[in-house]
Amino acid sequence: MRVGFCSRAASVGALYDGFDAVGVMYGAGYRTLARMWVGERDAAARLRARSTQEGTHVHPADLDDALCTGAGIGSRRVE
After folding, report:
1. Which terminus of the chain, N or C, has fewer Cβ atoms within 10 Å?
2. How far is the C-alpha of 40 from the C-alpha of 51, rounded, in Å?
3. Could you read off the pLDDT of 56-76 as tens digits, one per residue?
4. Helices and strands in the chain: count of H runs, count of E runs
């Protein structure tokens, strides 16, 4: 394992604020990131548990926020 892997806790609110600033508005149902950790080349997140999958194996909002986690890689703007 590399030293420093996802070693910094990141602000989920700052990530969403950054998206808002460029016109990407996430409503409450699409803000599923609960916690996020970042490193220089890595990012990890914990998503909020969803009470229903609404007929899917992976809810689209969960998939979207899992991909958004990558925005934190190497960034100090989400700390």
Report:
1. N
2. 33
3. 778 888 888 888 888 877 666
4. 2, 3
Q: How far apart are CA 77 and CA 74, in angstroms?
A: 9
Cα separations in angstroms, 17 against 28, 58, 70: 13, 25, 15
Rounded alpha-carbon distances, angstroms, from residue 15 to 41, 57, 71, 79 = 17, 26, 8, 9
pLDDT of 26-41, one tens digit each?
Answer: 888 889 899 999 888 8
Q: Which phi and psi (to 5°) does residue 9 adopt? A: -70, 140
Q: Of 8, 59, 7, 56, which Cα lies nearest the Cα of 29?
A: 59
Q: Can you tell me which residue has the tokens 């970042």? A: 38
